[in-house]
Design a protein that fits this description.
By secondary structure, the chain is mainly alpha-helical. The protein is 52% helix and 9% strand. A hairpin with a 6-residue loop joins strand 1 and strand 2.
C-alpha cells in the first residue's frame, strides 16, 4: 500500500498592523537609509471622553548618526554597546546644546520649544548655559572633546568618517561611552 504524502500546513504570514504600516510609511526610503529608527508605542487621549488610544510612531534611535552606529545591535556583541540611558543622556545634552545656541539662526532643528515672551526665552537660555557649564565640569577633557566632536561638530558623520584610524575610533568609542555615563549621572537618569 502506498503511503500518502502529507500536505504541509499553510504558513501564516505575519501581517503588520495598520498603525505599524502608517508609522513605517511616515518616513521616506532615503531617510530610512540615512538614519536608524525604532518603533515606539504610545497612547494619546481622545477629545470626547478622555479615552486613550494606542498609537505607533518611528523615533530616531539616537540624536546623531555616529551614536546610531554604536546603539545598533551587532551579531558579535551579546549586549548593546550603548544602553537606553546613554541615548537619553545624549539626547538631553544635544537638546541643551541646540537650545543654548538659540533659535534665531538659519539651521533646521527639530522639537526646540520657543516661548512667546522674549524675556523667558533669554532666562531659559541662561539656565541651559549654566547647566551645560556644570555638565562640562563633570566630564574629563578627552570625553568632552569626543562628545562634542560627535554631537556638535559632525552630527551627520559616522564614526569611521570622523575617526578614519581604527585605534583612534576605538579609543573615542570608549570615551564617548564613559562621557555619556557621566552625563546620565549628571542629568539624574542613573544613580551610580
Amino acid at each position: 500500500m502506498a503511503k500518502r504524502k502529507r500536505k504541509a500546513a499553510p504558513k501564516l504570514v505575519a501581517s503588520k498592523s495598520p498603525l505599524e504600516q502608517i508609522a513605517r510609511d511616515s518616513i521616506t526610503p532615503e531617510t530610512g537609509i540615512r538614519q536608524s529608527y525604532k518603533l515606539v508605542r504610545f497612547a494619546e487621549k481622545d477629545f470626547e471622553g478622555g479615552v486613550s488610544l494606542n498609537g505607533m510612531r518611528l523615533e530616531r534611535l539616537a540624536p546623531v548618526k555616529a551614536l546610531e552606529g554604536l546603539a545598533r545591535k551587532h551579531p558579535k556583541r551579546k549586549t548593546l554597546f550603548l544602553q537606553s540611558y546613554h541615548l537619553l543622556a545624549a539626547s538631553q545634552y544635544h537638546g541643551d546644546l541646540l537650545s543654548a545656541e538659540g533659535h534665531r539662526n538659519n539651521t533646521y532643528r527639530e522639537r526646540i520649544d520657543v516661548s512667546a515672551s522674549g524675556d523667558t526665552g533669554i532666562n531659559r537660555r541662561l539656565d541651559i548655559s549654566r547647566r551645560l557649564l556644570r555638565a562640562v565640569e563633570k566630564l574629563e577633557p578627552e570625553e568632552l572633546a569626543s562628545l562634542n566632536k560627535v554631537i556638535r561638530d559632525y552630527p551627520d558623520g559616522t564614526m569611521a568618517e570622523i575617526w578614519p584610524i581604527r585605534t583612534e575610533r576605538n579609543t573615542a568609542r570608549e570615551l564617548i561611552k564613559s562621557g555619556l555615563h557621566e552625563l546620565a549621572v549628571f542629568y539624574g537618569m542613573v544613580k551610580f
